[in-house]
Amino acid sequence: MAHDFSAKTLYQKIYASHVVGKLNPSTDLLYVDRHLIHEVTSPQAFSGLKLANRAVRRPDLTFATMDHNVSTQRRSMDAAGETSRKQLEALAANCDENQIPLLDLTHPDQGIVHVIGPEQGLTQPGMIIVCGDSHTSTHGAFGALAFGIGTSEVEHVLATQTLPQQQAKTLKVEINGELSAHVTPKDLIMAVIGKLGTAGGNGFVAEFAGSAITAMSMEGRMTLCNMSIEMGAKAGLIAPDETTFAYLKGKAHAPGAAHWDAAVKYWQSLYSDPAAVFDHTVVVDAASIAPQITWGTNPEQVMAVDQSVPAPDSFTDATKRDAAERALAYMGLQPGQKLTDCQVDVVFIGSCTNSRIEDLRAAASVVQGKKVANGVRALVVPGSGMVKRQAEAEGLAAIFKDAGFEWREPGCSMCLGMNDDRVAAGERCASTSNRNFEGRQGRGARTHLVSPAMAAAAAIAGKFVNIAAVHTQGEQP
Amino acid sequence: MSKIFAKGLVCPLDKNNVDTDQIIPKQFLTSVSRDGFAEAMFFDWRYLADGSPNPDFVVNKPEYKGASILLTRANFGCGSSREHAPWAILQYGFKVIIAESFADIFFNNSVNNGMLLIQLSKTNIDLLFNRCTQGPQQWQIDLASQEIMFGNNAALGFSIDADIKQRLLSGLDFIGSSEQLNPQIADYEQSRKASQPWLG
Ligand code: SF4
């Protein structure tokens, strides 16, 4: 059968349109359209530049925010401790010196880098977007090739606005059908990670497609692409469509009226050609997915909330068996246990995975008119100033506060606990974030990743709840 | 041609999915310097809650003191993009990591810091761990011939991207070599401005 060699995947199209030149037979130099920076992974890059007497090539394509170690209690650079203050000050000074726009703590729109990029219209289809942060994959929801880089690469991009790259393999994750009630994009991506494993996407750029994706909101698509890094993929990608364009229209940095039509016309060319061949394809039936929860210490150790904690012996692979054994010991769980019998101490609703307005709406609808269970510490940390203002205007903040949740300022917060928002050793946390690694939320902290609605339900019940079962029993608020 | 990239003691870290939060926990990420991370490597595994070294953690065992080759399993370095992870490993004294697979960003970060990351099949990784059970190992890594040499003329070959090999052998300047394409970068910016003026 004749093969159409001109057919390209979306990834291949974006890659090809950014090649500046060849560095050697296997490595291309790609142009970077947007470079997002934050306080943790940039200071050493700026000092490297200075040492080598190099300037920032395109400060106008570079945008900075403060998010990782800011206090979410007070808007002040010294509210999160001495070393954090130094790092925040270094970012402010570096941005000032190099004329890089910065959303600092005094800016009303400050927030988590992967929340503000889309909100500000900085994230657009067809772009290459990089940031010294692995969850840069989030921006792939707009049909941008977006991936995390290290500090040496941050320095490289600051100096040249380019990055050496080699073509990745392509993975298609086709998700057909409809998600059941109370099953969210978070559950979907967790189920996909469970299926493929945390290394299943290594070396691949994953494109999500299918009717479930077409029907999904931008917020949901961002959650999906956000966690594509948790299956090891270099980036997640979704072809832009009318939903994407509608989201972008009118955003501060989106193309204005003069260029809008031309931009949309270009964006409409960004899809995988029907004849394009992916290196690997996975097909998922959306309707088959139940609300998910992690039971272990990496995101692939996940199950449907109505299942029981697996026995290590049930894994045929010896290293997986050992990992499960170790994870259960760390998590304080027994094989066969139901997590719906398991008490929670802390509930965290936030992070670049689930801190957008839809996430807060979903959580608030579960919380409305109820109280946080005794002994549970629960906090909501909106992803940005914009999300915070909107949630306040819609009355969501009041719902959370009335129920006994803490309502915080935007930042990464308890997702990684670089500031003072930590989970104590042995405490069990229902978290809407993306990583359940040992010690991620604090030394000895036990993290269970869930959707915002599941986290909210756990806060009210004081233990994990199968949100779908509550719903079918008609107890849903 | 022989070019010994590293030689020394091997430390076997028998785990899958070692993530960057384990390699260097977040409390060490607030530094603005590139140095001083050696002590932080594997902090939560290396030290007990009271701050004393954990005698059961492999890196702390006397027989692996001074190791420069780290042997581990699949998906090493998964998690965040923090370059502090390879900085910590390098500053501790490891120059080579051998694993079944590595997370992408960690791999790039390590290469950008002059480390050699060797990826081998599961069968070969099992074989190497097996060797380590016979007592502490001293290996040499010949990058030019792409071989791990065990002594007694025994060796195991590995493959490596030609570009990375070249960079590690000649120590090419990461930014400098891209800057040689400055005229092309300027051309690209010109045509980008013409065809997609909304990009700035
Ligand atoms: S919210 Fe968490 S995962 Fe997202 S950028 Fe912040 S620390 Fe990273």
Automatic annotation (TrEMBL), chain A:
This is 3-isopropylmalate dehydratase large subunit. Heterodimer of LeuC and LeuD. GO terms for molecular function: 3-isopropylmalate dehydratase activity; 4 iron, 4 sulfur cluster binding; isomerase activity; metal ion binding. Its cofactor is [4Fe-4S] cluster. One of its GO terms (biological process) is L-leucine biosynthetic process. Belongs to the aconitase/IPM isomerase family. LeuC type 1 subfamily. [4Fe-4S] cluster binds at C352, C412, C415. Residues 12-462 form the Aconitase/3-isopropylmalate dehydratase large subunit alpha/beta/alpha domain. It is an enzyme of class 4 (lyase). Keywords: 4Fe-4S, Amino-acid biosynthesis, Branched-chain amino acid biosynthesis, Iron, Iron-sulfur, Isomerase, Leucine biosynthesis, Lyase, Metal-binding.
From TrEMBL, chain B:
Residues 6-122 form the Aconitase A/isopropylmalate dehydratase small subunit swivel domain. The keyword Ribonucleoprotein does not apply. Signal peptide: none annotated. Pathway: Amino-acid biosynthesis; L-leucine biosynthesis; L-leucine from 3-methyl-2-oxobutanoate: step 2/4. Keywords: Amino-acid biosynthesis, Branched-chain amino acid biosynthesis, Leucine biosynthesis, Lyase. SUPFAM superfamilies: LeuD/IlvD-like. The keyword Amino-acid biosynthesis applies. InterPro entries: 3-IsopropMal_deHydase_ssu, Aconitase/3IPM_dehydase_swvl, AconitaseA/IPMdHydase_ssu_swvl, IPMI_Swivel, LeuD. This is 3-isopropylmalate dehydratase small subunit. It catalyses: (2R,3S)-3-isopropylmalate = (2S)-2-isopropylmalate. Its EC number is 4.2.1.33. PANTHER family: 3-ISOPROPYLMALATE DEHYDRATASE SMALL SUBUNIT (PTHR43345:SF5), 3-ISOPROPYLMALATE DEHYDRATASE SMALL SUBUNIT 2-RELATED-RELATED (PTHR43345). GO terms for cellular component: 3-isopropylmalate dehydratase complex. GO terms for biological process: L-leucine biosynthetic process. It comes from the Bacteria. GO terms for molecular function: 3-isopropylmalate dehydratase activity. Belongs to the LeuD family. LeuD type 1 subfamily. It is an enzyme of class 4 (lyase). The gene is leuD. Heterodimer of LeuC and LeuD. Catalyzes the isomerization between 2-isopropylmalate and 3-isopropylmalate, via the formation of 2-isopropylmaleate. HAMAP family: LeuD_type1 (MF_01031).
